[in-house]
Write a structure and sequence with these properties.
Elements lengths: L10 H17 L8 E7 L5 H15 L7 H7 L1 H17 E2 L7 E2 L2 E10 L6 E11 L17 H9 L2 H6 L27 H14 L4 H17 L4 E2 L18 E2 L9 H12 L3 H9 E6 L2 E6 L2 H30 L11 H7 L2 E6 L11 H31 L13 H8 L5 H10 L5 H12 L5 E2 L2 H5 L2 E6 L2 E6 L3 H6 L4 H7 L5 H12 L24 H17 L2 E7 L13 H10 L2 H10 L3 E4 H8 L10 H8 L4 E3 L3 E4 L1 H114 L2 H27 L1 H9 L12 H11 L14 H23 L12 H9 L15 H5 L14 H8 L2 H9 L20 H8 L2 H6 L21 H5 L4 H13 L14 H7 L4 H13 L14 H8 L6 H12 L1
Parallel strand pairs: 1-10, 1-14
Antiparallel strand pairs: 2-3, 4-5, 4-10, 6-7, 8-9, 11-12, 12-13, 15-17, 16-17
Length: about 1100
């Protein structure tokens, strides 16, 4: 932070100064070895707590290295995060609303932040924290003045706890107004804009961040709830003791009152307290109403008066809350890695020698209409801090300048050591007199006030008028002014010893978690009572007993001893007005604070003094790098550097802040320039090494890559040569096979023609030998002519063998049926309509063909016999051969072929087709009729309502899985297809029935010829066929249409038909391709421009 001292005064500048001083201690051998302390003081409500939080937050953030990585920052901020998370807890349990401040600290805290030097640079990292507390105002738990509140946590618990928590803590439907301990001041809200419910959630989050377990949190809230209910446990005196003095022992124990400030009775509140503490109710009531007295080894129970019962209850509440607060502070300290834990063998020394910055945030000076013991202790602490300020700022500065021979003008100041002697001295000091009065029999507050008037009446800082003496009051002249204290309650608050029986009862709790917490209370250093023991600890001497005030005096003295060993920084908080209002500046109020706080005198001294000082050797060692002289003294160095506002003393060099900043700036510039040169030289060396290494790696990569490319080129050349050789071999093989095939055809053709010519010549010769001699000449001429004709025919066909080979290889129209079975040959011949040509086979057909033709003739005769007998089986449940009926169905000249169209023919109506067997292909009669194109038979079966015929609609053949509709569509016969859409047939028809490949009739229709395809598609789609049905390849009809090669206009017409019926052009098949992909691959050049635009618009929109 260059030039940070030139900025306007700010709390951050004080924190930065302490941080830099501590850093010089770690990294500069000749620097001061003192730790740093920041003392924050001022009136109540001046902003001391907020200033302390600013300082801690700044130091936690400043310990982060701005150049470090995120993980490194997280590790270096461990100590600070826990401390910042602890602030909401400490404020909720230790702060309260007073007449002057809505968030007044009712305890003092001394926070130590330990630091360690970073290995890589001159920065510091926060290594741990510790918190020490002083003088918690625990009396506020049971009593508040008018216009004030109890500690914040009680109101936050009532406002922010959820319903389940309130139910568990027995706080349902109860408000702060119904509890005596939080309604004493008749004030329930804060005026600084902070909401109690939101603050409660922040406390829960802080507890979780600090590692509080759920069990520990539950125990804390149980104790707080029990304290609230305990305040509503009221007592009434027994009938015999009514009218007796409050301090006199009662003849009978006090009884519980019937009514309470809340909607619950006192007994109900007591039940809740016993349940929350998990203790026996009778033992708790006995501990609140009686007291054990041990005399001569015997124990007696003495009944407490009504006032004593209330005091016992309140003492129990105060002590429990104080122990609970101490437990929270210990948890905060255990959440941070404290320095004491690192070296257990030397805890005290380690704590003092570890570099740290401490911040003291203690209650400010207070003066109310009624000032009691708490205000006396608070003002005493501020009196001690003022004395420390005078010693450090005024006396120390003045003495240092005079000893070093620096010119100095004496400054007058008001010494408050006399007031401190009056309070602290023994045996006539106020604390000593208070301890004495607390241990003598029948000591009272009036006796304490009387003793002060007798022994301190001549002291300049003490006064007590007759009115004050009558009111049991006295006045003390503090550095901030005269304050009147009410002595009533001083003795009780100084002793503050609860009934031992109460903590003995709590130690017997059945709740294991509360028992662990009470064990901590027992081991606490501040506990005056040993839990589990029936009597108080005896001290060596009655006069040596130490009260709360004397304990606080000792703690404060120890604290200031620690502060005196450190380098101290002061922050004075000035309160601008008493109303805590913004934009209001009370000149008289501010002037008085500046005057009695010693700020004006401090400013006068600082004008004369030199705040920066160091020994001659340290000065020379630190700034000799700014000159080229090999050896020089501090004075020579100041003259050489021409430093203004500097003085050279006997042993030290004195500098004003401006001169010190200039020297530091020049020194940092020289160091920075040297560092840049070193860094550039080192980085250049490193970069050269990296560059050489990169070149070596690059060369290695280039060599390897060139080898890989050459290997790839060699492999490519080999593959290309192999493909060339393979292509040449394949071409040679194909040519050889083609020549062999042509030669075989030619040989077969020549042999057959030669054989026919030879047979013809033999027949002609035989005929000629049988004729008359007259005819022989003529026959010889004929035979000669025939032979010559055959020879010429052979020669002619040899020239044109390739053009006639294919026609001459087959001997008849039935030669292709040779490879089929007889029944298949019959069916093929029947479907072709060649039944009338069975006798047309020539002699050139082979034996298998002749056998097939004979079988066809036999089956034809069998079919005619079955047709003749068909009329005898009408209406009977007989097993008619499907093959025979198929013969009838496929014969165009059969007796029932033409009559099948007659709707009144009783034969077709009475024929029971359900008993017809299905052939081995899975075909029914309806399949045969549809596939053969027999519209009349199909109409007879469907329209004339032949029994069982409609059931054949969904019967699929076993070979391809086609239904009757599939065959009709595949056949492309629109008249046949229209039969299935007649009113009496359509209800029984499944238009989306799929074959074995998942194709519906719509898929088959897209593959028809163009003229019939559009008509069939329109018919199917209009009657409900699914335009987006998919087959096993995830293909819709639109896919198939876009894949088939057709003319452009035909494809567009079919696609328009499908798109009109909601066909999805974006649906993808198993290749993840949509019809649009296939259309774009085929292009739109088939169709005209107008049709192309119309189709694209339909697809896109």
């Amino acid at each position: 932070m260059p030039g940070w001292t030139a900025l306007p005064p700010h709390v951050f500048s004080i924190a930065e100064g302490a941080y830099r001083s501590l850093r010089r201690r770690l990294h500069e051998p000749g620097a001061s070895k003192k730790n740093q302390t920041i003392l924050v003081s001022g009136e109540s409500g001046a902003g001391k707590t907020e200033t302390t939080k600013f300082i801690m937050n700044y130091l936690a953030q400043n310990s982060l290295d701005t150049t470090a990585t995120t993980s490194s920052k997280r590790k270096r901020a461990i100590g600070g995060s826990e401390l910042l998370s602890a602030n909401p807890i400490l404020e909720s349990f230790g702060n309260a609303r007073t007449l002057r401040n809505d968030n007044s600290s009712r305890f003092g805290k001394f926070v130590r932040m330990f630091f360690e030097g970073h290995e890589l640079d001159a920065s510091l990292k926060m290594a741990g924290t510790s918190v020490e507390t002083y003088l918690l105002e625990k009396v506020r738990v049971v009593h508040q003045n008018d216009g004030e509140r109890n500690f914040h946590v009680f109101y936050e618990l009532l406002a922010g706890a959820c319903d389940d928590m309130k139910k568990e803590l027995q706080l349902e439907s109860l408000s702060a107004q119904e509890f005596q301990y939080v309604s004493g001041g008749q004030c329930y809200q804060r005026n600084d804009g902070v909401r109690d419910d939101k603050q409660f959630q922040l406390v829960l989050q802080s507890m979780k961040a600090l590692g509080f377990t759920n069990v520990e949190q539950a125990a804390i809230w149980k104790i707080l709830s029990a304290l609230l209910h305990l305040g509503n446990v009221l007592f009434v005196a027994s009938s015999e003791d009514e009218g007796e003095e409050d301090n006199r022992a009662a003849s009978e124990p006090c009884r519980l009152a019937s009514a309470s400030p809340s909607s619950l009775t006192v007994q109900e509140h007591l039940d809740i307290v016993s349940k929350l503490f998990a203790v026996d109710q009778e033992e708790l009531v006995s501990a609140l109403t009686t007291r054990k007295i041990s005399v001569g080894g015997e124990t007696f129970h003495a009944n407490l008066s009504l006032a004593q019962c209330g005091d016992a209850r309140d003492a129990m509440a105060r002590s429990l809350y104080a122990f609970l607060f101490q437990f929270l502070v210990s948890k905060v300290n255990s959440a941070s890695p404290q320095v004491q834990e690192r070296n257990p063998a030397n805890k005290a020394a380690n704590k003092d020698t570890t570099p740290c910055i401490a911040v003291l945030d203690i209650f400010g000076f207070e003066e109310f209409e009624v000032n009691q013991f708490e205000q006396f202790c608070i003002n005493y602490a501020n009196e001690k801090l003022q004395y420390q300020f005078i010693q450090d700022i005024l006396l120390t500065e003045q003495q240092a300048h005079i000893e070093e021979g620096i010119k100095w003008n004496a400054v007058d100041y008001e010494d408050n050591s006399v007031c401190l002697e009056m309070i602290e001295q023994r045996p006539s000091g106020i604390f000593s007199l208070l301890d004495e009065e607390c241990v003598v029999p029948k000591g009272s507050d009036a006796g304490f006030a009387r003793k002060m008037c007798q022994r301190l009446q001549d002291h300049s800082n003490f006064s007590a008028s007759r009115t004050d003496q009558a009111d049991v009051a006295f006045q003390i002249h503090h550095y901030a002014g005269k304050v009147r204290y009410q002595a009533e309650g001083f003795c009780d608050k100084n002793k503050d010893q609860p009934n031992a029986e109460l903590f003995s009862v709590l130690g017997k709790t059945s709740d294991s978690h509360l028992r662990e917490l009470f064990e901590f209370f027992k081991a606490s250093e501040t506990a005056e009572l040993s839990l589990g023991q029936p009597k108080l600890r005896r001290r060596s001497s009655v006069l040596s007993a130490v009260g709360i005030g004397s304990q606080f005096k000792q703690q404060l003295a120890s604290l200031l001893d620690v502060v005196q060993q450190t380098e101290t920084h002061y922050i004075r908080c000035i309160k601008p007005n008493d109303e805590s209002a913004s934009d209001q500046f009370d000149m008289a109020k501010v002037s008085s604070q500046l005057r009695y706080g010693g700020v004006l005198k401090a400013v006068e001294i600082m004008r004369q003094s030199f705040p920066v000082r160091m020994s001659h050797s340290d000065f020379v060692r630190q700034y000799s790098l700014l000159t080229t002289s090999p050896s020089c003294t501090a004075g020579d160095l100041i003259e050489t550097l021409k430093v203004d506002h500097a003085e050279v003393g006997r042993t030290r060099v004195f500098l004003r802040q401006q001169a010190f900043d200039q020297l530091e700036k020049r020194r940092e510039q020289v160091i920075a320039d040297s560092a840049v040169k070193l860094q550039s030289s080192w980085r250049g060396r490193q970069q050269r090494r990296v560059y050489i290494r990169q070149l070596q790696v690059l060369w290695s990569i280039q060599v390897r890559w060139k080898a890989i490319l050459e290997k790839k080129r060699r492999i490519a050349r080999r593959e290309e040569a192999a493909r060339t050789i393979q292509h040449s071999i394949h071409c040679w093989i194909q040519a050889l096979q083609r020549r062999r095939h042509r030669s075989a055809i030619l040989i077969q053709f020549v042999f057959r023609r030669w054989h026919q010519a030879r047979v013809t010549l033999s027949r002609t010769a035989a005929e000629a030998s049988a004729k008359t001699p007259r005819q022989e000449d003529k026959s010889e001429d004929s035979v000669g002519y025939s032979g010559r004709e055959s020879v010429l025919t052979i020669e002619t066909l040899e020239d044109d063998v390739l053009s006639t080979a294919t026609a001459s290889v087959g001997t008849s129209a039935y030669s292709e049926d040779v490879e089929l079975s007889p029944m298949d040959a019959v069916r093929r011949a029947t479907l072709r309509g060649h039944m009338s040509e069975l006798g047309g086979a020539t002699d050139s057909d082979n034996a298998m063909l002749k056998k097939a033709l004979r079988e066809v003739e036999r089956l034809r005769r069998r079919a005619e016999a079955a047709e003749a007998a068909l009329s005898h089986f009408a209406g009977r449940d007989v097993d008619v051969s499907t093959e025979a009926l198929s013969m009838v169905a496929t014969r165009a000249d059969g007796p029932y072929y033409n009559r099948a169209s007659d709707g009144g023919n009783a034969l077709w109506r009475q024929l029971n087709t359900s008993n017809l067997r299905i052939d081995r292909y899975g075909n029914t009669v309806l399949h045969q009729a549809v596939e053969s194109g027999n519209v009349e038979l199909a109409c007879a079966l469907l329209v004339n309502e032949a029994s069982g015929a409609l059931d054949m609609l969904q019967q699929a053949e076993t070979q391809r899985g086609y239904s009757s509709l599939h065959l009709a569509v595949r056949g492309g016969n629109f008249e046949m297809v229209s039969l299935f859409f007649r009113p009496e047939v359509l209800p029984h028809l499944d238009l989306n029935f799929s074959d074995r490949e998942g194709n519906t009739a719509l898929h088959l229709a897209t593959q028809l010829q163009v003229k019939i395809a559009s008509r069939v598609l329109e018919l199917l789609l209009c009657f409900g066929a699914d335009a987006n049905a998919v087959n096993f390849l995830k293909q819709t009809p639109l896919h198939l249409c876009s894949m088939i090669k057709r003319s452009g206009s035909a494809t567009c017409e079919i696609m328009e038909t499908l798109l009109r019926h909601k066909a999805d052009p974006q649906k993808v098949d198993f290749l993840k391709r949509s019809p649009l992909h296939y259309c774009m691959e085929k292009g739109m050049y088939w169709c005209s421009e107008s049709r192309r635009v119309r189709l694209v618009n339909r697809v896109m929109y």
